[in-house]
User: Fold Glutathionylspermidine synthase family protein from Bacillus yunxiaonensis.
Amino acid sequence: MLSEYEEKQYMKKWFSLSEKAAEGGFTWPSLRENDEWCQYMSTGIYRMSATQFEAIQIATVHVRDIFQRTYEYLCEHRESFLKLKFPIETWEVARMEHKNIFSYFTRFDFIVNDYDIKLIEMNSDTPTGYLEPSVANKVLCDYHGVSHPNIIEIKLKQTWKQIVEDYNIQPYEKIHFTSYDWHEEDYQTVQFIRKHCTVQSDYVGIQSIIVAKEGLYTPDGAKINYLYRLYPLEYLVDDTDEGGKKIGLQFLDHIAQGRVKIINPPSAFLMQNKAILALIWELYEKNEWFTTKEQQVIEKYFSPTYFTNEPLKNEDYVSKAYFGREGGGVSIINNGKIIEEDQTEYYYNQNKIYQKYIEMPDCTIDTWDGDYTGKLLIGSHLIGGEAAGVFLRVGEKITGNLSMFIGVTTD
Assistant:
């Protein structure tokens, strides 16, 4: 616990840093949860060695290659699609092929113990965590007088040039960006990503998009031909209008029929499914599809993951929902007993994959309540197929929405 004086000094520093970060769009240094404000941004800096940082960037590229090859496998082996247990309503969209990289905006989550780097999840459909390792990290590094190692903004600009080329978007055309406009983090994240877009763009709240017979429109009547959406496609299965009509299904049909082209592409939605991790491990154990070098990459960076818990019954393991986010529906099993779990209903009742449990390293950070020791999870952004920097969070054994962000430097 901090003394009254220490607390005042800490809060003065925290508010000052928060205000500077807010100037760049990072406006959620604290989060409202259960009727109280919870700190999200720490004021400290995690000092990572340059060699470890580089090792994570290398791992990011190698892991990317495995997912790209797995995407190619699914395109060639359609029968394996059934193992992923997508809602039937999303099948047509999920099976749409994309010629280039499966996702332009991806974040891998790694557990890093020294130089042992293990992937536990991939967020390829609607990843967040962009302003923390860019805007906020720069503010924290400047405060501490150390270097800012991430290059998020550079890669975003390069990637939008690539998207415009891949989608053959003409100079007179416009990309619309969408999210929940009332959700501060989602809204600011979309605006940050949009800022680096190299062609005309506009923003429309997801709930304001008009789903008509001919396609998607803005409230002003402008047709939406290209849509960047920070909105999970599986949500559309249950989306209805005020009259109860399932407009989400019509939305999905417009995507499937090419009336609107979405960014990230449908392939990102396909690969977001956590069952992909079990499929990769299954192919690895059967020594199918992957080259010898790719097999070595999987052995080095991936964790044993299965469609059933049978192979892991005598080990500690984690069960995860196929479409889980922010730790939703995750359970940790030790000696056959659940020792920690998230029971968010939407995720908890989904199909599960089972992954060998790996302990995250401890990390102590400063908070307005004093020092806090939690578990460190390292996110690594892959933007346009290239490593762009790391995003550090410290929290409980299940990394949830209230895990705290801490800055990073390689000085």
In short: The mean pLDDT is 94.
